[in-house]
Amino acid sequence: DTMPEDSAPGLARRMYIQTMRGLIRRNATHGLAASRLAADALFPAGWAEDPRFRVLYYGIDMKPFHAAPDPAIRAGLGLPAEAFVVGHTGRFDEQKNHLFLLEIARELIGREPRTRLLLIGAGSLRPAVERRAAELAIAERVIFAGLRSDVPRVLKSAVDVFVMPSLCEGLALALLEAQSAGLPCVIADTISVEADALPPLITRLQLATPPAQWAETILAGRGRERMPRAEALAAMETSPFNIRHSAADLQNVYATARRVSSQM
Predict the structure, then answer these.
(1) Given pLDDT bands bounded at 50, 70 and 90, which one contains residue 221?
(2) What is the mean pLDDT of residues 211-238?
(3) What are residue 238's phi and psi, to 5 degrees?
(4) CA nearest 60: which of 223, 261, 225, 247?
(5) Euclidean distance between CA atoms 252 and 257, whole angstroms
(6) What backbone torsions phi and psi does residue 15 show, to the nearest 5 degrees?
(7) How far is it, in rounded angstroms, from Cα 253 to Cα 260?
(8) 179: which residues sit within 8 A by CB, 6+ positions away?
(9) Residues 187-199: pLDDT tens digits?
(10) Are strands 185-188 and 31-33 parallel, antiparallel or unpaired?
């Protein structure tokens, strides 16, 4: 909620959570959460010691990440071949902190004029973000790519570093995709560490850190291969975030539940 905690919407949300926790505790035979944060939010306290409840991560399809980088992707987005491209994937919502990302981009552009900020996504705050980019005099260096069905190809072919200064995240699927593409990722320390599938690719900064320092950190890692892309993809394929693994895990949950119920 964006409203104060003691407001009516905040109170209604807290009452809903309290009621659902009680119902779940009394009636649920199985409980699955996409992350530990999600489980903490809705399952009863001490859920990790209750065999009914567990985390089952979302999976992402690794197949598209096997495609070779395509130079035409940059050209199609209007990105110069020599540009230093900072990428971000996420809906235009307050949680994603696009306005702070623009401040980082301004600092980057001041230090490296070849910088371009590539924003993938849609949402109600896009017009406000576009206006702020114009106010900062960086509009010509910001590409609003909209919704894309080929995000893995864009990440592999057009992006040099992935930046995510979110105010909060449950399980950041966009960050998992960036790691699958083998990209260095500079992210806020507010993002759950559960999404740090490949720690060598991850750099965490506090949101209180000035945009100039974010920019310096991003540029300091430029040109250094933290992990070969093929190695990164292979590691992601063996992780719990591979959709094949999460689908098999979910199937096993249902199969186990059926066996137990048939014995009752």
Answers:
(1) confident
(2) 93
(3) -90, 0
(4) 247
(5) 8
(6) -65, -40
(7) 11
(8) 185, 197, 198, 201, 202, 232, 236
(9) 999 998 999 999 9
(10) unpaired
Which residues sit opposite 186 in a β-bridge?
163, 203
DSSP 164-219: E--S--SS-HHHHHHHHTT--EEEETTS-GGG-SSGGGEEEE-TTS-HHHHHHHHH
- Exposure of 176 by Cβ count < 10 A (0-12 exposed, 13-18 middle, 19+ buried)? buried
Predicted confidence (pLDDT) at residue 224 exceeds the cutoff of 80: no
Specify the 3-state DSSP secondary structure of 138.
coil
Q: Tell me the C-alpha distance between 152 and 181, whole Å.
A: 7
For 147-169, b where at least 16 C-beta lie within 10 A, e where not — what string? eeeebbbbbbbbbbbbbbbbeeb
Length reported for the chain: 264
CB 86 within 8 A of CB 196: no
The pLDDT tens digits for 30-47 are 889 888 888 888 888 888
With contact defined as beta carbons under 8 Å apart, do 29 and 7 qualify? no
Tokens of 152: 């893995």
Say which residues have a Cβ less than 8 Å from residue 146's Cβ, sequence separation at least 6. Answer: 120, 121, 122
Rg for the chain (alpha carbons), in Å?
Answer: 21
- The answer to whether 188 touches 207, Cβ cutoff 8 Å, is yes
